[in-house]
Amino acid sequence: MKHLLSTNDPTMIAFAQALLQGEGIDCFEMDVNMSILEGSIGIFPRRLMVAERDYEQARQTLIDNGIEVDG
Question: What CA–CA distance (Å, rounded) separates 63 from 71?
Answer without folding.
Answer: 12
